[in-house]
TrEMBL record:
The keyword Protein biosynthesis does not apply. It comes from the Bacteria. Keywords: Flavoprotein, FMN, Monooxygenase, Oxidoreductase. Residues 28-389 form the Luciferase-like domain. GO terms for molecular function: monooxygenase activity; oxidoreductase activity, acting on paired donors, with incorporation or reduction of molecular oxygen. Belongs to the NtaA/SnaA/DszA monooxygenase family. FMN binds at residues 61, 107, 157, 161, 232-233. The keyword Metal-binding does not apply. This is N5,N10-methylene tetrahydromethanopterin reductase.
Amino acid sequence: MSQPRKKVLLNAFNMNCVGHIHHGMWTHPQDRSTEFTSLKYWLDLAKTLERGLFDGLFIADILGVYDVYQQGIALTAKESIQLPVNDPLMLVSAMASVTEHLGFGVTANLSYEAPYPFARRFSTLDHLTDGRVGWNIVTGYLDSAARAMGQTELLSHDRRYDQADEFLDVSYQLWEGSWEDDAVVADKQRRLYADSGKIHPVHHRGEFYQVEGYHLSSPSPQRTPLLFQAGSSARGLQFAARHAECTFVSGSTPQATRAQVDKLRKAAQDAGRDPDCLKVFMGVSVIVAPTEREAKEKQQEYLRYASPEAGIAHFSSSTGIDLSQFGLDEPIQSGPTRAIESVSKAYSGWTRRQLLEQHSMGGRYSLIVGNPSQVADELLKWVDESGIDGFNLTRIVNPQSYIDFIDLVVPELQRRGRYKTEYQPGSLRAKLFNNDRLPSTHPAARFRR
């Protein structure tokens, strides 16, 4: 008997800024990205995504500025390449107040955080959202952020992951072990809010962190937020295998992506976890219209507003290489980098002309263009052939890209039985894994009482 084909999971991929992935598109007449400082803009988006039964709104973030290309921020400022960028955590409780089910995956850079107050912020959000918050774990890759934080340069790539491992261990102790499940009594007659015998201090003495104290928040619905992570280097893969519940991949073909997915699941299994404990998402961009001809016309229209140069300026900081110094057809040579190691290696030998062509829509994400049936065909091909679980859908024109997808593609996927027709109850983790809490095979479980 054949296994039922998996339903597609879907996050909207966005950022608390003007230019996120598809640079230059903020100039399109229908794009509302310049309203990102308005709360109404985010509340409208959250309600739109819940109408489309999206699993989550995944909010990227960056500390530092893109100042590698042309060795400055002239183009970064001109095209608003993730500058200015506001704090993503501030948005979540407001959006949760106008939705019931939509999850929120929030990026936060642990390199410049202290675990003790950080754990409280996420516990607070988990309480206020009824367990709908996730944390995208990043360690940063910009020297500009390190300098802004008083450091001379970033820690080396692998050392950042060493620090991250310890940060997670401290956080798990706070989230999972400090308060017992029944520590809160809230008995007015006995004047007993919490039982002090069931609240335990954390004692941690490590290489990067020394923490002694009680977690400031009582247990939230998920305790530990749903854990996202995107590293694809050898060290990043090791980190994901130990900690991540949701991971992100990119690939040029379903076959190449399948190799990444298989490697991730094997690494999780080797770490003592169920290989199915990982939900794997791929970044994708979609241009859809009622007919193929209309979709292609829309694509040509969008190309007039996109900025390929802004796209490779963003890419320069991802690699740590000033791509403006190379001729159009001169092969780009990469060397040791403190930026995103996997990206730098993958594009070594490319030319700037090739990168400009790849970034014709202002970004390098896989692009699907067509009518609803064609888009659904392509999405399901990726899921069925690569083994991914779903997609991070980028915005091209915001919010029109999401509205088009919801009105045209979602009904097609539902018609084929490959997308939910209603939300399941419970927390974000429960919706994805049928359990509010991390499983016993996760390293966080050893800190539970």
